[in-house]
Amino acid sequence: MDYILVSKWNLEKHIQKTQEQLMAVLGVGREIEESLNSMLAPRNDIGLSQFFEKSPRTGHLPLPRNLSQPNLHRSPSVSLRRPGVFCWSFKILPSLTSLYQDVESLLKIMENSMNFSLVQMDAHYPDFEQVVLRYDSVMSQALAALATSFCSTLWSNVTNKVFLRMLQDIGFLAHFESLLSTQGHEQGMLEDMWFAVRQLNNVTLHIVQVENGNLGEPTLTGSRCDIHMSLPLQESLFDELPQSLRRGDGVRVRTVLFTQGINEGQTLSDLNFVSQHSQIQADINQGSYRIMEEFVQCFRALCIDIGSAKLAVEANILPVLLEQLAEEVHSNKTKNVEMLQLCEEITYRVNGGRITSCKSAKDRTAMAVTLEQCNILRRDHALPETVFQQALDSMRSRGTRLHNCMKNIGHRQYAFNSFQLKCLPAKYCPPPGTYGKKVQT
Fold it and tell me: Which residues are catalytic?
């Protein structure tokens, strides 16, 4: 049903683009009309403008007004600026008229075909409204995650000239990490998530200055196939932006989703040897790798263009990480969490945004977020390897993750039992005393 919805809106989008192209053709026709009229003497009473109704910016095609044969031959008294000009205009007028009529007919055919297709679709799928509701429910959450990720990344890098240059020239990379399994209901959640992440590529971000000190909220304009999101920014930070972003130029969004199930559901899915389950996960990761690779190549070119020595080092490290990621993505490992950690590091190095989720975003997500935080401490702040596990356990037992559990289920415990713990990768296991057998998600 999701693909039906996408097909419908993609058809509308392509028809809209075609209409814009056809209107551009008509714009050329108007330019020809003006050029021909400019070559006729002021006493000319049968310029091309006489034959077409003017309808500027109405969205409708100009229609022929007076195309009868006698009028076209009413030309003996016309004086020309140069000999032979009207002869040329007289020959091109029928072709131009035919062009207007053909384009008008084509647009009517396209509109009727679109309406007919929608009627057929509604007849075959009476629950289409439920599909639209499902789409809006999924996209509202995806858009909120994108806005939060972009704003937090922008606030952290508002003085980073490389990041701002990247927003102008390449766009913003939003990396979604999923810990959902390919078993049962979670497979459906994963498919919805993959759909939403791909649709976010139709989003254009705009940064606007707050008014009267009121930060306000993000606003959406456009359509489902062409969403424009305006994000408010404080005046002090807004002034740090390049001129193109201050005047409202859009930031392109590039999204990737890397997914790896780590719970007992994924264990069962791997044991079933059902190709379609595992293939969904592989298809998502391999498709996202190609997008990640393309973005990294553009970022490397940007680093080389800027010419900084520090950026040159980054440009040399990224291909190595990409090669390692390619090996992990195309491997047949089960619960390949090394792939997830490589994706995280690459995203940080290209100043991208990070979003992590599972089913409830409090148990498996808590394990992943705290592991990511410790990896950052080790990589960027020289956290000794000897205290890595201690820091990890401390974040999981004393940090904000348990507060998140408390707000969600009313207990300061993760919803893991002994069987589930045996199925989790070692780095994703909570410390003793932080999980409960009777706690339900």
Answer: 358
